[in-house]
Amino acid sequence: MLELSHKNLEVYKTALMLVKEIYAVTKTYPKEEQYVLVSQLRGAGILVCSNIAEGAARKTKPDRRRFYEIARSSLVEVDTQIEASLILNYTTKSEIKNIENYLVSIFKMLSKMIANLES
């Protein structure tokens, strides 16, 4: 693997932990959700990490900010899909406690990074 600076960012490391939790929780979802909610939830989690990495690789502040904003938007998608999972009784509040903590933490870190990049 490449030795790139984004891998040292706390927000990136936390986003990877979020992905791990998402995959663990969605293993128990109904089979009929495999290509719908499970796919969407896992994909959004991966996009958080991917956009943090891509943003960190950009040279200009506006470019970095744009990718961090996209990462934050994907994080909001994860939050929405977790909320839907709770309503559909695919998971419980206790099962998603770690996910909730990661969501809050990553959202705060990304918001601060975005604010620091504003002109």
Note the beta-strand portion.
under 5%
> What global shape is seen?
elongated
Q: How many β strands by DSSP? A: 0
Report the total helices. 4
Helix-strand sequence: HHHH
The largest sheet is: none
What oligomeric state is this? single chain
Catalogue the unreliable spans.
none
| N-end to C-end Cα span | 34 Å
Estimate the mean pLDDT confidence.
96
Instruction: Output the radius of gyration.
Output: 15 Å
Structural commentary:
By secondary structure, this protein is an all-alpha fold. About 70% of the residues lie in helices and about 0% in strands. Helix 1 runs antiparallel to helix 2, helix 1 (about 10-25) runs antiparallel to helix 4 (about 95-115) and helix 3 (about 60-85) runs antiparallel to helix 4.
